[in-house]
Structures are given as C-alpha cells and as structure tokens.
Specification:
There is one protein chain. The protein has about 150 residues and is an alpha+beta fold. The protein has one domain. Helices cover about 55% and strands about 15% of the residues. The chain has helices spanning about 10-45, 55-85, 140-145, and strands at about 90-95, 100-105, 110-115, 125, 135. Strands 1-2-3-4-5 form a five-stranded antiparallel beta sheet, with helices on one face. A hairpin with a 2-residue loop joins strand 2 (about 100-105) and strand 3. Helix 1 (about 10-45) runs antiparallel to helix 2.
C-alpha cells in the first residue's frame, strides 16, 4: 500500500468528476478495442491453414501488424488508466465504472464512492464494505454520531 496516499475533500472529489468521467470513458473505449482485437485474432487464427511459404508469410505479416496494433492500444489503455491512478483514485470495478476517493472523516478513513454516469460524488462506504455498503454522503455525519 502506498504510504503517501492522497485524501480528498468532498469538494475536490466532485470537481474531479467531469475529468474522471471523460478519462474513464477513454479507458473503457480502449478496453473494448483490446477485447475486439483479441476476438478477431482468435477468429483469424482459426480460419488460417498454412499450406505454403506464401501462406506462412501472409500469416506472419498479419500477426506482426495485429501485434503492433494490439500493443499500441494496450499502451494507450494503461496510460489513460495510470492518469486516474496517479491522482490517488482507487478504481474498484472498471466495467461498472466504480471509483473510490479516499476521505478522512473524524480521524478515520472512509471512501467516497462514485460510479460512471453519476453527476457527482453522492455516496460513501467503509473501506471493507464496498459498493453494497454505499450510503448517501448526507448521512455520513449522522452514522458517525451514533458510534
């Protein structure tokens, strides 16, 4: 775990949402492109039967080009994902677009929780609770006053 973990205020987290939404959509587009490239490579590999030197060269050239495209898309995927992680955000589920913001509240860490498509950061949860334990931020103070 990173010792210099960043903690966000609710306002900082909210201000990041437009940027995060755009960046996460880019990551998901690259992820989809990677999945499509993998699927098309599997289909192509099943269809090719090498029966000559020319066929082998064709297959080899195709594999080299496909590999270049695949690795370029992977690099863009990881670069975009790293930008999110570099901000100190915690990507919990890429497919669902779940991202947590570490938040310090009354002497302990909780997580502000955001999901792609939500207009702002409206929820929080205990670190061990996860998405199912999400509660509205407006209830955060009330929950801790009961403890």
């Amino acid at each position: 775990m990173n010792d210099d973990k960043r903690f966000f205020t609710i306002e900082e987290a909210d201000r990041l949402v437009p940027w995060l939404s755009r960046k996460l959509k880019v990551v998901l587009e690259h992820k989809m492109a990677i999945e499509q490239l993998v699927d098309s490579h599997k289909e192509f590999s099943c269809m090719i039967e090498v029966t000559s030197d020319e066929g082998f060269q064709f297959m080899l050239n195709n594999n080299v080009q496909a590999s270049k495209v695949f690795h370029a898309v992977c690099l863009r995927f990881y670069d975009a994902l790293q930008e999110i992680l570099d901000k100190g955000l915690i990507v919990k589920d890429l497919d669902q677009g779940l991202v947590d913001f570490p938040y310090w509240f009354q002497g302990r860490q909780v997580l502000l929780c955001w999901k792609l498509g939500e207009k702002g950061v409206l929820y929080w949860h205990e670190p061990e609770a996860g998405f199912q334990g999400r509660q509205l931020i407006v209830n955060l103070d009330r929950v801790y006053r009961k403890r």
